[in-house]
Write a structure and sequence with these properties.
With 300 residues, the protein is mostly helical. The protein is 69% helix and 0% strand. It contains 12 helices and no strands. The radius of gyration is 20 Å and the shape is globular. The protein starts with a helix and ends with a helix. Residues 295-300 have low confidence and may be disordered.
Length: 300
Amino acid sequence: MKKMRLPLLIALGVAIIGVVFGSFFDLQISTAIANPSNAFALTVSAICPTIGFATVAAMGGGFIALIIKGKYHIALKIVFGVLAAACFGVAIYYPGGEYFGVNGFHGAAPEWVGYLIVLLPEGAAAFGGYILFKDCQNDKMWIVFMAVIVMLLIALLAVIPIIKDNMHRPRYRLISTTDAVGFHNWWEPCKEYSSLKDMFLHDDFKSFPSGHTGETAIVLVGITFLPMANKKYEDYQLPIFLGGCGLVLFIALARILAAAHFLSDVSMGATIMLGLLVITNEIIAHIKPLQLKEEVEVKE
C-alpha cells in the first residue's frame, strides 16, 4: 500500500545502517554484551519466531474465512483449504523447533515438546485471522495472500539459507569458546569451514544472516497488507507497525545477547525481509484490481 512506503523505507534504512555499523563494531559489541548462557535472551529467541509465524497462521485463518464467507468457485475454495492447512503447518513446524533446539534451551526437554508449546498460540492466531478476514471487503485478497506466500518462500527458503550456507560465518558463541575458529566479518566467507565442520556443530557456522530476525519481521508483512482486506484497519496500521518494528529490534538484541549473532547478522536478516517487503508492496500497490473498490474510485 502506498501509505506504507515511507514507514517501510525508514525501517529498511535503519536495518541497512545496522549492517554498516556492524561492519566496524561487530566483534566489540558481542565481546561486551554477548553470553551464550543468557536465559533472558534464549527465552526471547525461542518465543519471537512463534510471534512472527503467527502472521502465517493468521493468513491460514484468513483462507478459512474466504472459504466460509467468500463467493468463490468450489475449486478455488479447495485450493484455499490446502493453503490454510499449509499455513498452519508451517506456523507449527518452524517455531516449534526453536524452544529446545540448538538455538533455545537445548537439552532441557525433548525437541518435540516445542511443537506442543506452539500449538495453542498458533491456533489462536489462526482463529484471530478468521476474525480479521471474515468481513473482508476485497474479493481479490487471496491474490495478496499468494503474493505474501511467494515473498516468504523467497526470503526464508532461498535468500537467507543460501547466504548462510555459502558464508558459513562462525557464531560468536563458537569463537568465544575455542581458539580453533576466528572471527570473520560478514563479507568474508569462512574458507576453513571444510576442515572445521566435523569438529563443531553445523549450526555454529550459520551466523550470517539472522533467520530469527527475518522470521520475526514477518509480522511487518501482515501489518503492511492488512488494510487491503478492510479499510477500517488503516486507523491502527501505523501504531501497530511501529510496535512490530520494536519487536524486531527486541529479537535482534536478544540474538546478540545470546551470542548467536552479530549486529550485522541481525541487521541483514531484517534488511532482506524489509527489502523484499518494499518490493512486494510496490508491486501490489500498482495493481489496481487488487485494491479495495473505495480506493480505486477515489483515485479515478
